[in-house]
Each structure stands twice: as C-alpha cells, then as structure tokens.
Amino acid sequence: MIGGAAPELPGVPGEYYGRPTRRLESEYCWLDVLSEGGPRIVGFGLRGRDNILAETPQSSWDLEFGLYELLGGHRLWFAPESAECSVPDSTGLKIAPISEADGPAVRLIGAVEAPTGLRKIEEIRLDRGSAGVAIRHVLRNEGERTLELAPWPITQLRLGGVAVLPLPARVKKSGVLPSQLIALWPYASWADERLAIGERWLTVTARPASPFKIGHLNRTGSLGYLRDGLLFVLRFDPALGAVHADMGCNAEVYCDEQTIELESLGPLVRLEPGESTTHDERWELREVGPAFDAAGVAALL
User: Fold this and answer.
1) pTM surpassing 0.85?
2) Pairing between β-strand 162-166 and β-strand 182-184 as defined by DSSP bridges
3) What are the residues whose beta carbons fall under 8 Å from the beta carbon of 178, sequence distance 6 or more?
C-alpha cells in the first residue's frame, strides 16, 4: 500500500493440516478460516472446546478442472450440481477486514473461477452475546455469459450424531393439494436404517456407510445436528414460493463413510454478467445435555 502500512489482517494466525488459517474468537466461540484458499471455514466450536466440523484433509477428486480438495468444514457451491462446482480453490484468496461493531468479522474473497466466471465471497461475523455466527454468501458473475444457479453452502460435521429436519404439522381437515416435499437421491434408499420419518420431523443418524442423501422443502428455514449433548443449529431464509433447484428442495442432508453434511439452498436466479446473488445463514451452538433428543431439537427449531 503506497503511503502507509497495509491493513492488519483480522484474526489470529494458525494452521489446518499445514494450511495457514486465521482465527476469529468471541467470549463464547471460535471460528477458523483458510487464509490462502477458499473461501473456506475449517473450524468452529465453543470457547475452549474441540472443532465440531468434520476434518477431511486427505479427501480429493480429480476432474476436468484439476484436483479439488474437500478438506472438510464449510464451503460455498452452487446448484444444480455439476463438474463446474469442483474448481480447485487452494490459491488466490484475499482477506479483508470489515467493521467489528457487532463482533469479530472478516470478508473472504475468492479468485474468479475460469469455467464460470464466478467469484465466491463470504462475510462472516461472530456474535458478541452468544455462540452464534452470521455468514453472508455471495456469488458474483464476473464472466461473459449469463448463469442460472442457486447459492448452495455446504457444512460438513463429524459423524456420531443425528441431523433433524422439521416437518410441517399435519392438517386434520381434508385437503386437495400436497403440503410436503421430500426428495431422495438415486444412490440412496428409503430403506436406509439411518433415515427415520416421524410426524413432525425427519432424522438422519450419522453413521459411516455408503452415500445417502435426502432433501425437502424446509418451511421453517432451520436444520439441527445433535451430537454428545451439543446442538448445532443452522438457520436460513426458506424463500417459500421461489423456484429452487433439486426438484424444489431448499434443505438437504448428505451422509457417507466420513461425514454428514447440512446444506441450505437459495432460490434459483439468473445472473447476468456483473450481477450478484446472496444467501445468508446463521449458525448457533448450544449445550443441551445428554437427555436432549430429536423431539427436543424439532420443538426448538
């Protein structure tokens, strides 16, 4: 920076399996982001406690655009899913400080991805008064073609818990139109023992097994993951009435041998060159104790 020192980077430097990170910390929780790739969140936990996010540093796949490293944690993709989601993002990140009036904050600006012309940006703010985080996801079209897509943040969590998706209440009087939408991916089975569908909630138990994925139209804009007495809550705007990808799903859960994923989707939009779309998530961590169950999670959501 000519005429003065460069702005100080937010957070405390650290590392994630040899990759440099920055840590944001409040009185209640901490959060780690990669400082040279992504945007990626690779760590999140209560103050003084372990990372609740899955860590998969050895997982990767090699497609037409090069080696994509999964790493674990939280990433921003776009739907409908295609090979263009897996563009390597290990370099080119820029970190910018933003106002910390409401709590520790950072802006992560990814490199433009050549196949699409998309730039991914995340603005992350920790609460001052709770173990909460606000994340604004931005997809900006800096290419030359019009894109039709939906923002699709994916959060990988450690196995060993249960994911809870609230379902709408049954209406006792008869009706002529459906009130719920649940979709299954072609490699999954309704008979999978990890899946349970109740009157007011759907659960996926996070045990290691072959890939399984289910989605639905989430009317509350909330998902929960309960593990060892700790509840992770993900909230988003459900955008009811808007058009969504994946047969109308705005929330999805994926589970395999390594991890379980909670996923929210924004509405499908048409992005002309120079235009952007945003999708906000809010994360919350709560200690609820070992007696808390799926019914308690559904009631809270």
Assistant:
1) yes
2) unpaired
3) none
Helix (H, G, I), strand (E, B) or coil at 84: helix
**Greatest extent of the chain over all pairs of C-alpha atoms, in Å:** 72
Quick check: 116 and 80 in contact, CB under 8 A?
no
pLDDT in tens, 146-169: 999 999 999 999 999 999 999 988
Determine contact, residues 71/57, Cβ cutoff 8 Å: yes
**40: which 2 tokens?**
């990626």
Dist CA 151 CA 246 (whole Å) = 12
Which tokens in the block code for residue 57? 């540093």
Q: What is the DSSP letter of 242?
A: S
The Cα 134–Cα 127 span in angstroms is 8
- Residue 137 CA to residue 8 CA, distance in Å, equals 23
User: 80 preceded by cis ω (within 30°)?
Assistant: yes
Distance CA 24, CA 170 (A): 43
Where does the chain have alpha helices with state H? Answer: 294-300
| CA distance to 62, 137, 207, 285, per residue, from 51 (Å) | 27, 22, 18, 12
Rounded to the nearest 10°, the torsion over CA 188, 64, 266, 198 is 10
What are the structural domains, with CATH classification, of the chain? 12-300 (2.70.98.10)
First to last CA, the chain: 47
Tens of pLDDT, residue by residue over 163-202, are 999 998 887 777 788 889 999 999 999 999 999 999 999 9
By residue count, the chain amounts to 301
- Write the single-letter amino acid at 126: L
Contact 287, 46 (CB under 8 A): yes
* 88 token code pair: 């390597």
